[in-house]
Amino acid sequence: MSTTPAEEPAPPAAVLDCHGNGPTALRMMLGSQLRRLREVKGLSTEQAGHAIRGSHSKISRMENGRVGFKERDVADLLTLYGLVDAEARSALLALVRDANTPGWWHRYGDVLPDWFQVYIGLEQAASLIRTYEVQFVPGLLQTEDYAREVVRLGHPEASSEEIERRVDLRMTRQARLHGPTPLKLWAVVDEAVLRRPLGGEEVQREQVRRLLELTEADHITFQVVRFSAGGHAAAGGPFSLLRFAEPRLSDVIYLEQLTSSLYLDKPGDVDRYRQVMDRLSVEACDDGETRALLRAILGERGRHGRDAAHTRP
């Protein structure tokens, strides 16, 4: 049965009043609203795709906020879904224009591959990120010198200028950890991350000191899986779970590869990785044990530095 004007679905105020968010968040919220309108109307993604001369997969990508929107497509979908109220339509179409505005990270397009631009957009939109790392300190927690060494390792042929651009991008991303509504970050790392002398003793020592400071922040949780834990839940390697403040948006699992990335948002996949992350958090050191380990490593590195100085000719 068609929707009558009196029954016309109205977009929630949370969607219409979200223009202060970044473009990825806007696309995700707009996509979530389009999904809600489609489901209320009882239409399939195939039917919606046909209405805009596209496929069901295009509708899925739009509803997940993975692509930009064309105003004509959204206008046609709103008509199909029975949303004819002029004010509501105007507000949603204005949201389309905002959602298509490039994010700040696009100015780093010369050093930022397309597949990682998607991740940064999600990172900027997320309210909580849980991440597990086996080789490096997570990028959002790296010092500038440590980040420089990681970049050099991953891009050995890069010029000094390119390296500094990549480091600057990483430091700019860390702004999400500050401000009135900072990102909540829950990081679990393998002990090898702290033991590997990347960039030399002083760089690693400064990085450990930074981590020790960050463990005092209420919105940051940092844990270490000790070598003594043996095998553990995340045998498959590093991954991140991103959660968003908008309750209708599903969590996203991010898996980074050497030259590409993979994003998972199917409930079964997300649940599986969430369970692994939960087990990792139990297997890892708690807050007090993590801080004690960081202090112990700082003491060890301090002794190494003094010993090295004493043996110089």
From TrEMBL:
<feature type="domain" description="HTH cro/C1-type">
    <location>
        <begin position="34"/>
        <end position="89"/>
    </location>
</feature>
<dbReference type="Pfam" id="PF19054">
    <property type="entry name" value="DUF5753"/>
</dbReference>
<dbReference type="GO" id="GO:0003677">
    <property type="term" value="F:DNA binding"/>
</dbReference>
<dbReference type="Pfam" id="PF13560">
    <property type="entry name" value="HTH_31"/>
</dbReference>
<dbReference type="InterPro" id="IPR001387">
    <property type="entry name" value="Cro/C1-type_HTH"/>
</dbReference>
<dbReference type="InterPro" id="IPR043917">
    <property type="entry name" value="DUF5753"/>
</dbReference>
<protein>
    <submittedName>
        <fullName>Helix-turn-helix protein</fullName>
    </submittedName>
</protein>
<dbReference type="InterPro" id="IPR010982">
    <property type="entry name" value="Lambda_DNA-bd_dom_sf"/>
</dbReference>
